Every structure is written in C-alpha cells, then in structure tokens.
Queue: 2 jobs
Job 1
Amino acid sequence: MTEVATAESMSGPTARRYICGLSCLADGADQIFARGVLNVGGVLEAVIPAKEYRDGLPSECHAAYDELLGRAVRTHRLEFVESTSESHMMASARMLDDADVLFAVWDGQPARGYGGTADVVVEARRREVPVRVIWPEGARRD
C-alpha cells in the first residue's frame, strides 16, 4: 500500500523530470521511499546519522540497507558515533538542508520519540519546505 502511494506521489503529473531522493535508509518507510526514487529513475543520496547506525537497524534489514547504500550516488555521514534520537533528528535536518520537498510517510500522529516523523514535518514547515504527506487509506501504524 505504502509502496504504491509513494511511487504515485513521485511520478504524478507534478513530478519533476529529475528526482534526487535523500534518505537515511532506515527499515520501513525510508527504504520504501529510496526504492521508489530508484524505480522512477531518480538518484539516491544517503544520509547516515552515525557510525553505529547500521548496527542499530533490525538485522533482517541489513541486506536492503547495504544494497541501497551501494546504489547511492552520494553519502553524507554525520560525525555522531552512537545511533540516537539526536543523531537521527540531525540527519533529518541535514536532509532538509537540500530538500525541495519532504515526502513524509506519516499518519499525522505525534512522534513516538524525539526525531520521529512528526518532528521532521514540524522542522520542514518551520523552514518552509513543502510537505507532501503519504498515508494510504486503510494504512495502520505498527
């Protein structure tokens, strides 16, 4: 469901000819977004929040993370060592530095912890970066 909605958001009538997606490549929506960018012919830039970031991801997501990281045309590595809420929020802020629009897979609910999607949406709006919320009808938050 989310995969289809993401692809439709990036390839609709208002889509740009050139898409460069920035992602931390986390499990779930980040990886879905990254694949969507690549599937519509865009290029991917990875923003890695911390040196220990990959280790903090679920082990079943490591192969997809590695594959997507390998397909990134550019990698931005933050100087944090530990993968924390702070490093994740700083990575999101780094992505917003270069973003023309934020595609947010978001149910409109508050963040579960600092640096969650709601916090990133608030920061994007504060910076006046347009936000396109993707939340397919019938989708549920895990």
Note: Residues 93 and 120 are 7 Å apart (CA to CA).
Job 2
Amino acid sequence: MTKAIHQFHRTWIEQCEAAEGIRLRHGTESAFDYVVGEKLFSYAEAALTRPEFARELPTFVSEIRRIFFRENIETLWPRIERQIAEQMESDLYQMEEELSEAVEGEDLDFIKQDAARIRKQWEEKLRVARHLRDLLVSPSLGTA
C-alpha cells in the first residue's frame, strides 16, 4: 500500500482556493491579507532556503495575480508595508529598551548581537517584500 505524502511546497494551491472563498465571504481586503500578507510572505521566506518552495514561488505569484486585479494589489500593498514597518519598529524599540536597561559586560554584548541579528532579519524581510511587490505589480512576468 502506498502512503500519500503531503507536499508542503504545494500548499499554495489550497491557500489560493481559500483566498477566493474568503474574498467571496469577507471581501477583497481580507482575502489579500490572508494570501499575500500571511501565506505568500511565509512561502517566500521558506523559498530562500528550500529549493522545492523556490521552484513553486513563480506559479504561486502568478495565481495571486490571477485572483486579484493589479489595481487591487497596488491599492492594498501599502497596508502590508505599514504592517511590516510597525512590526519592525516595535521589535527595534524593544531592543533599544533592553539596551538602555542592560549593564556593561556580557549582557550588553549579547543584547547588541541580538539587536544586530534582528535588524538583519528585518532588512531581509523588507528586501523580500519589495521583490514580491515588484513581481505582483509587474506588467508581465518573464521566464528564466
């Protein structure tokens, strides 16, 4: 008997189907937040280190472009950027608070290293966000 193996790198198909249902029940904004703000970002981050996700990413982006009009994407995208900026500001503010409360020595060094790591993660997330935005609003997608 052959066991069915779930292909996690293909979950975008179900997520896009769910987004269409969300759009019908709750509106375009909710569907966009779900499939782009949550699912596409997580998927793109996985694609940075997992080749099977990277291979599927262009098809996922194409499906999102099919679901949403370019005008929808251009209108709703700034909300996604604001959410990222707010999360980043919150994390960096928390790190500044920890730095101001830290005493010299190992604690301070550890917190500085942690702050540098967090800043680097946010820079990467912003880079990914800009790349995804460009893919989603580009007049056409090329082939490699």
Note: The first helix runs from residue 11 to 26.
